[in-house]
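Person: I keep going back and forth on a fold encoding question. Show me how you would write down a chain together with its backbone fold. Please set it down just below, with no commentary around it:
Helper:
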Amino acid sequence: MKKPDIQKAYEILAETYPNTETELTYKDCYQLLVAVVLSAQCTDARVNQTTPALFARYPDPQSMVKAKLSDIEKLIHSCGFFRAKAKAIQSLSQDLIDRFGGKVPRTLEELITLRGVGRKTASVILNQAFDIPAIAVDTHVARVSARLGWAKSKTPDKIEFELRDLFPPENWGAINGMLILHGRRLCKARKPLCADCPVQKHCQYFQKSH
């Protein structure tokens, strides 16, 4: 089996998905942080339907911590796991006020100290809010990078570092976005649309299965 041409696959995906910004809608980095927390095991489209009403009432950490937990739960109910997410949103808002002057921190090390925030969420914030190179490994990134032959690891942290070793920091944000979009549109979990895939010639999964 021919070894996949990683650089060629990257170039094709970059051309196919030139806009790799998150599909979540937000006005500032705090709202992005909340939206990313809500997006866990939920579609971006559903989150975008939910956040306008939430942010109309609680647009910042100060108003969020004063809200009744039950009111937050009602507003985010459709996002799933609403009780846990409501607690996380209120807790991280309190963390921001207590330790960061109400501002979202700009380093991964600080972001992951917020309650409910892991490496994936922190990496999205760094990438999208601050334009700081980072790779957030969600289910799409993990699946597509494995199929392409870019990563062999099974855990998100290890996959992240494999991808970081393959590409320079200035490409990390684009890689993150293009793998997510490719996973949503073509390289689907149950039935990948290989016939329509622009990188099939450079994909380990395609070579093995065809």
About this structure: The mean pLDDT is 94.
